[in-house]
Write a structure and sequence with these properties.
This protein is mainly alpha-helical and 304 residues long. The chain has one domain. It has twelve helices and two strands; from the N terminus they run H-H-H-H-H-E-H-H-H-H-E-H-H-H. Strands 1-2 form a two-stranded antiparallel sheet. It is globular. The N and C termini lie far apart (72 Å).
């Protein structure tokens, strides 16, 4: 049971890191991105291939995964920079599916649908599985904490204020002299780096990746995490990730208590229960559990 709880903690940290990356792209810059799992996959495959085939250290492989995802994010941003709303969402969703299809068919590189196994983990084999899980949870927690501090610094910095201005009214930001395209590309690069790093964390924890893992449902979970926590707030992104993981896992113990249903019916009921809980939560807290708080600057009143 302890290993299960620790594993869920690692999953929550990975979700939190992804939510922080999404918050930069969507929460601050206002760009609807449904290709999260694509950047997640890039980070996972790059770190797996670099550590297995090139023999680079794990830390360097994770850095390469984050850097590769960031570069891909720049490319996607440059292609989609003039798209907004639903159009941007559709294109980024297509990007994620393209990554999954390429990974499924590039057998010479990714081993196709059989996936890549034997991905190294820090100290794996040198310590017991229980100690490895606990150590990895601590490492993931430190990475999320550092990412949170950096994201908060970015949010309150002039760069973050410009992103929020672009989110609220792109034309006004342009009239104010801000290079909107450059800021959007930078936001995509920063957010994609977080998504790629989360993919690298996942790969080194599970020691196995395959295209079937990188499905759009993961993107939906991260979007729900940010909506639940509070769009635009980094604290809400982390909180929402832990809430989503708790809902996903707690329902596993509820469904077996329902009599006279098959395993397939139980899985469907579980998804329905998760959806109902999220709808209720968003119905009464549409702004999220930790909504974004903006500083309102009072306008001086001129007395005539």
């Amino acid at each position: 049971m302890a290993n299960y709880v620790i594993a869920m903690g690692v999953s929550a940290c990975i979700y939190a890191l992804m939510a922080l990356g999404l918050n930069v792209i969507w929460g601050l810059a206002g760009m609807v991105n449904l290709g999260l799992v694509g950047f997640f996959a890039v980070g996972a495959y790059v770190t797996a291939l670099s550590t297995i085939k090139l023999g680079v250290p794990i830390a360097a492989g994770m850095a390469l995964g984050a850097g590769a995802a960031s570069l891909v994010g720049v490319g996607v941003a440059l292609i989609t920079v003039r798209l907004r709303g639903d159009y941007l969402a559709i294109v980024t969703l297509g990007f994620a599916e393209s990554i999954r299809i390429v990974a499924s068919n590039a057998i010479w590189l990714t081993n196709g649908t059989d996936g890549i196994s034997g991905i190294a983990g820090p100290l794996r084999g040198g310590i017991s599985p229980e100690m490895f899980n606990l150590m990895y949870l601590g490492m993931a927690g430190v990475i999320v904490a550092v990412a949170y501090v950096l994201a908060e610094r970015l949010r309150v910095a002039p760069f973050g204020r410009v992103l929020r201005a672009i989110r609220d009214d792109e034309q006004v930001a342009a009239v104010a002299g801000k290079h909107v395209t450059a800021f959007k590309v930078k936001a995509f690069a920063v957010g994609a780096a977080g998504l790629g790093l989360s993919g690298a964390l996942y790969a080194h924890y599970t020691s196995f990746i395959a295209p079937d893992i990188f499905v759009p449902l993961l993107t939906l979970y991260i979007k729900l995490a940010l909506l639940t926590g509070g769009v635009g707030n980094n604290r809400g992104a982390v909180l929402g990730a832990f809430v989503i993981v708790f809902l996903l896992e707690s329902t596993r113990f509820v469904i077996p208590l329902v009599p006279f249903i098959s395993a397939v019916q139980g899985a469907a009921l579980r998804e329905l229960l998760i959806a109902a809980l999220l709808i209720v939560m968003l119905r009464y807290r549409p702004q999220g559990l930790a909504p974004e708080r903006l500083t309102i600057i009072p306008v001086p009143v001129t007395v005539r």
